[in-house]
Design goal:
Layout (H helix, E strand, L loop, with lengths): L122 H14 L1 H8 L8 E2 L2 E2 H18 L4 H14 L5 H9 L5 H13 L6 H15 L6 H14 L4 H12 L4 H13 L6 H10 L1 E2 L2 E2 L2 H11 L5 H11 L6 H17 L4 H17 L3 H12 L7 H10 L5 H16 L3 H16 L3 H13 L6 H9 L5 H14 L4 H13 L2 H13 L6 H10 L3 H14 L5 H9 L5 H15 L31
Length: about 650
């Protein structure tokens, strides 16, 4: 995907003045805003023009609990005089990672479907990159395949838990005391959000209390606070809730900081109903379409049925409070509904899908949300049949290519794939370059769900035949991943041969490497080819080869990746290396990463990436909470306030 030629580029969006930064399309880039790395960023829709609105007087800041005001602490200063927000290009993303610029050399690529661009079929890579962790649980798979993570296991002179404590201490140190670079601080805050404990809550609140805090640091601290597990101390929890509410209701703060505070409140609302209710109050008083879009999504993150009235109004009436919504903003409300388990949700989503008045982006989001409902929740058989009928109708008769593609994926990702005949039929029809890669992935997911049944075997055989016949690069790469998803062990030799062919396009070699990891067979030929891919391959091949080695239980390559990170000058390569380190989770790399993070002589981007890797490696949870934010998300429906929603991991 490509950003619009004059306003949207791969690493610079002059119109993005709000919450988040959009990455460009095409090049496998990875910005480290304190979290994960999206190697295939979303195709943004143009931001909707907004009239500057004079902000109302901000609410008074919450009161700090007396027993948590330590010596030297001061109450939050009064907020500055309100000033209208003005468009501009923030210098870095909310995760504290590098905003591509002078020290982050990346390519720009033409927009899919444009005269200079590649086929729109490349969009499938975006969906896969955003959803593979959520659908497959890559972190959990890696931890299952590697020998023990018990606290008795020792690495060097320290146990694994002791190494995690050391990483936590280093991240605290940088988040609080780093003075030379706010972006490194922000990266540390997001990484700390992955590993922090109750004792760290006040560290996250400090940047929010100060009205003049750097926007990157404040936004990262807010999101880090949202990632924390339930706060046991009720007094501190109450203060954290009040501080977040104060931020996202305070129009003297930037839209970016307000938006991340709202998202954080949505994540915290899973543990605290009072936080969910405070979001409902903010929806009633919302003052702009940008705020309404991000608040709607935050309501869904709570997964609380108490917020259904606000989301139903957004979808059915096209407004939240008194604020009218664009099609893109309504799409976020549709995505939010997909996170909430309630029979009324499905009725509403099906009504909107059949409505002629619903916009294109809203319907795309509705289709994805229906797929999420099928996959995530136990539904009555009659309800499942209703959803399947509606999605099959879109797949067979829909006129909008991406709605058909999302319908295929939603059907395939369900717990009991009932639509395999339709997927096969549509794939055989051919003709639509946009749809076929999605259908291939859908068939691979369906075979993975079915396991070793006869139907799964038939799908594997079919995919292997189409893989051998495919000529287009994008379709061939998608079929490689589909073969891997289906766990087709007889394809290992073919995939190894493809990975080893240096003259093959990098996209095909990278897909072959990832497919070898997804198959999950520790074949000596595959292991050797993947190690060669890490040492000799281009960035795309290096990243997926390292990921595949992690899936196959081989973490020893991680030490070599740290050395490569220190030497790398390409932002693309740096991002792939960091993502690979985080996925591998080898605690032997914690010590050199801590050293890199603390070393002021290192380049800023390398220090930020070291913080990212530490957070990913040391996160004790099997499922990364930040992936909750973009799973089943309609990445075409961007607004000023949600543009970076897809890049904050």
């Amino acid at each position: 995907m490509q950003a619009r030629r004059c306003a949207l580029t791969v690493f610079n969006r002059l119109t993005t003045w709000g919450l988040l930064v959009v990455l460009g399309w095409g090049s496998p880039v990875a910005l480290a805003h304190g979290g994960g790395h999206r190697v295939t960023p979303p195709p943004p829709s143009p931001p909707q023009p907004q009239r500057p609105e004079p902000p109302p007087a901000p609410p008074p800041p919450p009161t700090i609990p007396p027993d948590y005001r330590r010596p030297g602490d001061t109450p939050p200063p009064p907020p500055p005089s309100p000033t209208p927000e003005s468009p501009g290009a923030p210098t870095s993303g909310p995760r504290g990672g590098p905003r591509p610029g002078h020290d982050s050399p990346h390519r720009t690529n033409p927009r899919p479907g444009s005269r200079r661009g590649s086929s729109a079929s490349t969009h499938w890579r975006i969906w896969w990159d955003y959803n593979r962790e959520y659908l497959l649980g890559l972190r959990g798979l890696m931890r299952q395949n590697v020998v023990t993570t018990k606290t008795t296991k020792r690495v060097g002179t320290l146990s694994i838990d002791e190494w995690r404590d050391a990483a936590r201490g280093a991240l605290r140190e940088i988040a609080v005391h780093e003075t030379t670079n706010a972006k490194v601080r922000a990266a540390a805050y997001i990484a700390l959000g992955r590993v922090a404990t109750d004792r760290d809550v006040m560290l996250f609140l400090k940047p929010l209390e100060r009205a003049k805090s750097d926007d990157d640091v404040a936004a990262a601290a807010a999101l880090g606070l949202g990632m924390l597990p339930p706060i046991k101390n009720q007094r501190v929890n109450q203060y954290a809730r009040a501080q977040l509410e104060h931020i996202y209701d305070n129009r003297s703060r930037s839209l970016r900081v307000r938006g991340f505070a709202a998202l954080a409140a949505g994540l915290r609302g899973r543990h605290d109903k009072v936080t969910a209710l405070s979001l409902a109050r903010s929806c009633a008083d919302v003052k702009s379409g940008n705020d309404a879009a991000v608040l709607a999504y935050a309501c869904g993150l709570t997964q609380d049925s108490l917020l259904l009235p606000e989301l139903f109004d957004a979808l059915r009436k096209g407004r939240i409070g008194q604020q009218k919504l664009t099609d893109n903003a309504r799409a976020h409300a549709a995505s939010a509904l997909g996170m909430i388990r309630n029979p009324l949700v499905i009725d509403t989503l099906l009504d909107i899908l059949g409505s002629r008045r619903a916009g294109r982006e809203t319907k795309r989001a509705v289709i994805m949300s229906l797929g999420r409902q099928l996959r995530e929740f136990e539904l009555d058989e009659r309800v499942v049949q209703r959803i399947h009928r509606a999605l099959r109708a879109v797949l067979r008769k829909g006129k909008e290519p991406m709605q058909r593609a999302f319908a295929a994926l939603s059907l395939a990702g369900a717990k009991t794939p009932l639509a395999i005949p339709e997927l096969l039929t549509e794939f055989e029809r051919g003709g639509d370059a946009t749809l076929k890669p999605y259908l291939a992935l859908g068939l691979g997911l369906a075979a993975r769900t079915l396991g070793d049944t006869g139907s799964a075997q038939e799908i594997r055989k079919y995919l292997a035949e189409r893989w051998a016949q495919a000529k287009e690069i994008e379709l061939h790469a998608a079929l490689s991943l589909a073969v891997g998803l289906s766990r087709h062990k007889d394809m290992i030799e073919d995939l190894v041969a493809e990975l080893q062919l240096a003259r093959r396009p990098a996209a095909i070699r990278a897909a072959a490497a990832e497919a070898l990891g997804l198959i999950g067979q520790r074949d000596p030929r595959a292991l050797k080819a993947l190690i060669d891919g890490v040492h000799k391959g281009p960035p795309e091949v290096l990243g997926t080869s390292a990921l595949a080695l992690g899936l196959l239980g081989n973490r020893s390559i991680a030490r070599d990746l740290v050395k490569k990170l220190h030497k790398a000058r390409s932002g693309i390569l740096q991002g792939h290396l960091t993502l690979a380190l985080g996925h591998l989770g080898n605690t032997e790399t914690i010590a050199p990463l801590i050293e890199t993070l603390r070393d002021p002589s290192q380049r800023r981007v390398v220090r930020e990436l070291a913080a990212v890797a530490l957070g990913l490696i040391c996160d004790p949870r099997e499922r990364d909470m930040l992936f909750e934010l973009d799973a089943y998300f309609n990445y075409f429906a961007t607004t000023i306030a949600t543009n970076e929603l897809l890049t904050i991991f």
